[in-house]
Write a structure and sequence with these properties.
The structure is a single chain. The chain is an all-alpha fold. The protein has one domain. Helix content is 82%, strand content 0%. The longest helix is centred in the N-terminal third of the chain and has 35 residues. The mean pLDDT is 92.
């Protein structure tokens, strides 16, 4: 695999944690309104993506894309809903359960769903069989998530 692409994926992970923290602080500063903070975040992102789309394809490319939308099946638009749920969820949950707990649970959810999507080729993705070694790696991550989320309680119960 290309090392630059792997580094980019790592940086996206950093951005996700930072985004949750920034959006949580935005919500706090506007009266603990998680929905409005998520809306503002998405609006800012929409402006940036609109500028990038226009820079890449110009107005003609933008028009061609819009013209192709009505022929798409409805399920292909779920990404926006899922993205909104993710942003809202991070804004809502980060101050309540802590950023570390939130992020490790998000990673566990991403890991387990990604295994299924890759292995079975779900959502029209290419099938990439998951090897025993990769499953073992995923299990190690899940154990790490469990220790991160419940480790203090486990240690406290063991020391009684």
């Amino acid at each position: 695999m290309n090392l630059i692409l792997l580094a980019a994926a790592f940086c996206i992970g950093i951005a996700m944690s930072a985004q949750a923290a920034v959006n949580s602080q935005l919500a706090h500063s506007i009266g603990a309104n998680s929905v409005m903070a998520a809306l503002i975040s998405f609006s800012c992102g929409t402006v940036v993506l609109l500028a990038m789309a226009l820079a890449k394809g110009g107005v003609a490319g933008f028009g061609a894309t819009l013209a192709a939308l009505p022929s798409q099946p409805a399920w292909k638009f779920l990404g926006g809903f899922l993205g909104a749920a993710f942003v809202f969820g991070t804004v809502f949950l980060a101050p309540r359960i802590g950023l570390l707990t939130l992020v490790v649970l998000v990673i566990a959810g991403q890991l387990l769903s990604s295994i299924a999507i890759d292995h079975f080729g779900l959502i029209n993705m290419a099938t990439r069989k998951v090897s025993a070694v990769r499953l073992a790696g995923a299990l190690i991550v899940v154990v790490g998530v469990t220790v991160t989320v419940f480790g203090d309680r486990i240690v406290a119960n063991m020391s009684r």
